[in-house]
């Protein structure tokens, strides 16, 4: 069982693993060993609570596909075991991130002094550019 929070746990059977050859430099080792780990998790078919599923499906993240699957590829180390552990850490972090409630932004007006400073700096830039013109 993968523990997301005290109340939420995911069975190991819901995560599919694929082990593939890592891309990039590495010489002969890269060409003969499948050390990269790819984690695949189907959000819609999971036992996650509805709250988690909806938040994950609405989240904008390159690791979440339009079909509702989370795909995390890890090829940071030469060890398949280490890559698998790191991919699992990234997965748990991604699922936990949807529980964080963001504060709503309260729009504020700029102060009179900041408006004045902004206009003055624009005037100074305009004067500087005007001096670049060729004389008549």
From TrEMBL:
Q: Is Aminoacyl-tRNA synthetase among this UniProt entry's keywords?
A: no
Quote any Pfam family the record assigns: RF-1
Keyword annotations from UniProtKB, A to Z:
Hydrolase
What protein family is recorded?
Answer: Belongs to the prokaryotic/mitochondrial release factor family.
Q: Which organism is it from?
A: Idiomarina tyrosinivorans
Which GO BP terms, alphabetically? rescue of stalled ribosome
In Swiss-Prot or TrEMBL terms, this protein is called Aminoacyl-tRNA hydrolase
GO molecular function terms noted in the UniProt entry: peptidyl-tRNA hydrolase activity; ribosome binding; translation release factor activity
According to the record, the residues making up region (Disordered) are: 105-136
- Bias-annotated ranges (Basic and acidic residues): 117-129
Q: Which residues form the Prokaryotic-type class I peptide chain release factors domain?
A: 5-132
């Amino acid at each position: 069982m993968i523990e997301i929070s005290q109340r939420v746990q995911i069975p190991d059977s819901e995560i599919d693993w694929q082990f593939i050859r890592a891309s990039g430099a590495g010489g002969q080792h890269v060409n003969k060993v499948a050390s990269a780990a790819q984690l695949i998790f189907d959000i819609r078919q999971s036992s996650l609570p509805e709250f988690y599923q909806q938040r994950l499906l609405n989240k904008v993240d390159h690791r979440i596909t339009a079909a509702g699957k989370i795909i995390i590829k890890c090829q940071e180390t030469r060890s398949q075991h280490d890559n698998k552990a790191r991919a699992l850490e990234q997965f748990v972090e991604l699922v936990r991130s949807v529980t964080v409630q963001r504060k709503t932004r309260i729009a504020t007006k700029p102060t009179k002094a900041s408006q004045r400073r902004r206009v003055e700096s624009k005037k100074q830039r305009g004067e500087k550019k005007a001096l670049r013109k060729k004389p008549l």
